[in-house]
Amino acid sequence: MPAFSWLALFFGAFYFVYGAYLPFWSLWLEGIGVSAEQIGLLLGAGMAIRFAGNLLVMEQIKGAGHLLPVTRWLSVFSLLAFIGFYFSHQLWWLVGLTLLANFIYPTLMPVGEALATRMVVQAHLDYGKVRLCGSLAFIVASTLVGALVSNVGSEWILHAMVIGLVLMVLLSWLPLHPAPQDVAGERAKASLKATLRSPTVRRFLLITALLQSSHAAYYGFSAIHWKAAGYSGTIIGYLWALGVVAEIGMFAADKRFLQRWGARQLFIAGAIGCVARWLLLGTTTELGWLVLGQLLHSVTFGMSHLGAVRFMTRQLPAEQLIPTQSLYAAIGLGMVLAALMAVCGSLYESLEGGIFLLMALVVVPVFFLRFKPTTVAAAAV
User: Fold this and answer.
1) Residue 33 region, left (φ>0) first, then alpha (ψ -120 to 50), else beta?
2) pLDDT attached to residue 380
3) At 96, which CATH number?
4) Which residues cross the membrane (predicted)?
5) Do 307 and 172 form a contact (C-beta atoms < 8 A)?
């Protein structure tokens, strides 16, 4: 199967599952009797273990040829882990399975992104277009699951995820052409330790950690907050879907309108959007303002992520792509996000919407952090 089709289907399956998990997993936990503080701790623990999972798994990938088999086995083990949630709702069981599932399943994100960036270099893949296929699947999932929660019950959150994981397992075993391989003359993949010695990479990781982890309150507690404000699961699903529609628009516009924007410009735009969005969500639950806040997802996540891809594909040597992708997922989308998720869980009952205002403060340092340009990579997105 051609690289574009394979990755479009794989991202579609992965983000369908993520579209059920990210907006609604807190509601599934609430539905089985877990308290807000325990939800925050479970979500935070899950995000924290991603750090170890991303680093340990990605460190074992010695070259591009390992990406496809690792993707396939991670898909299988992810399915088995989430099936485990059917067997018990005891807190100790939930903690254990949360750690296991989040050690395995989220690692598919950096592995899939590494496959995509490899195809950018190897087959001139249009990253923006293939990535927006995942965003479309996220919309379908968040809309569908929101309606199921309203009309059938929160137990369908897990059902939808398991169905999506079955599809992802089947799709991942389809052949991929061209197969990922190291480019002739390319040096062996750099180690994580060697990659972290680069001051530019460290500055990049700090910037992306601040931008992405500022979404902690949104990812963990927006559904609970909006439900408490009187919105149904269907409306919450539509709001999440709207955010991803805006994200799709940003990815689709990238190649045509944003190619002259460098990583630094995209990061600053992302930071401005974060401040505006979290101030909005922290001060009102009026539907019109929530719609505007969700449209800003195109900036807070979309531009920030495009900035990260721009940095990795234009400003890194090829041997640092996989380790930097791993560190980006482990730190910005794992460890730092986990810490803020736990903080939000402990503060939500007292601050409620005020936790979004704290997220606005998180991104302020981005305006003052800069990194020096480095050698342009072999390919650009």
Assistant:
1) left
2) 39
3) 1.20.1250.20
4) 39-58, 70-87, 93-111, 132-150, 156-179, 200-221, 233-253, 265-281, 287-306, 327-348, 354-371
5) no
